[in-house]
Specification:
- This protein is about 25% helix and about 40% strand.
- Strands 5-4-3-6-9 form a five-stranded antiparallel beta sheet, with helices on both faces. Strands 2-1-7-8 form a four-stranded antiparallel beta sheet, covered by helices on one side.
- The longest helix is centred in the first third of the chain and has 14 residues.
């Protein structure tokens, strides 16, 4: 069956996702329309296609123990000079993202892997483009704000064309103490605080 390239992430809901994707494209990032706007939980990872059922069962089990949580984006950051990335910062919900990504990569599961850098939840808005364009992304989105309640995460596969496509979504199922009821797309938008 061969191998597949997988990733796990939290989708940034509308209207924020499309707006950030369009902004990423406007900075000249050729990958913008092939990568849905997201917060990474598992970076691109090679896996045997035959392992997909076990991977999906593992992710479903994690989601069953999870509960919706607030996410807030605010301002920009960068990983330069280590890596050529400008991102929008996750200023609320980072600890929940960290908890999820640890469970996804745990030693007893099918997605064990070491990370190249310490985990830092973020939303990429420019990657591997000219320095001037990176500077523009950093400045133009410096006052960006968005907030929503996240109710799920999803498994994505990268196609031969380089485009990432959602395979399956995993809604949180833990009862008692949930912060919001997920809506279609996995997240309910809490406040229209979008500024750019």
């Amino acid at each position: 069956m061969g191998t597949v390239t997988l990733g796990v992430s939290i989708a940034v809901p509308e209207p924020y996702g499309s707006l950030l994707q369009e902004r990423r494209a406007s900075f000249g990032d050729p990958a913008a329309y092939g990568i849905p706007t997201h917060v990474t939980l598992l970076p691109p990872t090679e896996a045997a296609a035959a392992d997909l059922p076990a991977i999906e069962a593992h992710l479903a089990q994690i989601a069953t123990a999870g509960r919706p949580f607030p996410v807030r984006l605010s301002g920009t950051g960068t990983f330069r000079p280590l890596t050529p990335v400008v991102f929008v910062q996750v200023v609320e919900g980072a600890s929940a993202c960290s908890w999820l990504q640890e469970r996804i990569r745990e030693a007893s599961g099918p997605l064990v892997r070491e990370l190249q850098f310490p985990y830092h939840p973020h939303v990429t808005v420019a990657h591997g483009i000219a320095e001037e364009a990176m500077d523009r992304a950093y400045e133009e989105l410096s006052s960006y704000e968005a907030a929503w309640t996240c109710g799920s995460f999803a498994l994505y596969e990268q196609g031969a064309d380089g485009v990432w496509r959602k395979i399956n979504e995993f809604p949180f199922r833990a009862g008692g103490g949930t912060l919001a009821v997920p809506v279609q797309g996995g997240c309910s938008v809490d406040q229209p605080s979008l500024r750019s």
